[in-house]
Amino acid sequence: MDRRSLLLSGLSLAGLPLARPALAQTRPLQKVRIAVSTTVLNVGYPMLTLPLTLGYWKEEGYDVELMPVGASLQSIQQMVGGNAEFGEVNASVIVQANAKNDLPVRIAMGNGVIDWSVGVNADGPITSAKDLKGKTIGVFSLATGGIAYLNSYLRSNGLDPAKDVEMIPLGLGAPPVEALRSGRVQGLLYWASAIASFENAGLKLRKLVGDDWRQYPDYTLAVMQGTAEKNPDMVVGIARGMAKATVYALANPDCARQLHWDRYPATKPSGADAATLARWDLNTQQAQLDSLKDAFALNGGKLWGNADPAAYDRLVRFMLETKQIDKPVTAASMMVRIPDYFEKINRFDTATVQAAAAACKS
């Protein structure tokens, strides 16, 4: 499994998006499909689920279907095959698609940063990367994307990943939790929402993170170049709905959780009292909100969803160094080519969205 502000809200621009809902009602909603790189759309995807709950995409004129498809590669395949207009994917897969397969997959929106960590027992003796020497680390699979970052982290601390650390695949759910509790492994290398789920299961964790990890972009909205050229307004509208949802969720996380439970009751956790269940899902959701906030800062701190080419170029260099790709590709060549694109995404009244969140209005 892959996991996965200063807004242009001046009076001269604020009126533009407000006219769109009326326009949208005069024509049938256009069907749009987003392939999401996960198997379950739980509370940890507010930028994707909230636009449906809050009607943001309908206001833009679109009837959106979210399609959980598994890994990022599957999302790319769905777009290439014409089964989805967008994919929410790991940024590294976009780079690989362009560098290795010459596929015109384009970056439409930056949503997250690399949020992996090595979770170890909070009261145990492991406090730094050097303490991982001779230890066994559990991972989702031996092909999981975080391993490249861990190997770089170990090398920078004088360890040889091939000799000094053993990794074993554990998947998700109970096996990683039990492996750490039993001592079968001494660390768990997983993305933030997975680590949060382990904490919800009762683990008390210290998190080891490379200094540079959160300086790389990760979760990204992708679109094929042909789709963007054919319907640029659709790309703007979908991204704007996600930007508004991000602002809403950050303004009132508990409301975002409750709205998710109301619309997707099957994803609500069980096995505890209501207050505990809410605390668990807030912890899971916060992992994503932290990544959204860090991505906003990483990409300039002015426009929601902005994808800074410099950040993606850093990722390309890292992937070259770690031999995930064998030729460079420029971030500029991977960006959606729509004039004033990120400014258009941010043409909405932030204060109105935040006020609605404060009142928990859907």
Which radius of gyration do the C-alpha atoms yield? 20 Å
Output the structural class: alpha/beta
**Considering DSSP H and I runs of 4 or more, what fraction of the residues is helical?**
40-55%
Poorly predicted parts: 1-24
Largest sheet: 5 strands, mixed
Overall form: globular
- State the strand order across the main sheet: 2-1-3-10-4
Find the CATH topology of the largest domain.
Answer: D-Maltodextrin-Binding Protein, domain 2
Number of strands: 10
Ends apart, CA distance between termini? 31 Å
CATH architectural label of the largest domain? 3-Layer(aba) Sandwich
The overall number of domains is 2
Average pLDDT rating: 91
Give me the number of helical elements: 18
Oligomeric state of this protein: single chain
What does this molecule look like?
By secondary structure, this protein is α/β, with parallel strands linked by helices. It has two domains: 11-113 and 216-358, Periplasmic binding protein-like II (D-Maltodextrin-Binding Protein, domain 2), CATH 3.40.190.10; 117-214, Periplasmic binding protein-like II (D-Maltodextrin-Binding Protein, domain 2), CATH 3.40.190.10. 48% of the residues lie in helices and 14% in strands. The strands form two sheets. Strands 2-1-3-10-4 form a five-stranded mixed sheet, with helices on both faces. It has a five-stranded mixed sheet with strand order 7-6-8-5-9, with helices on both faces. The longest helix has 25 residues, at 274-298.
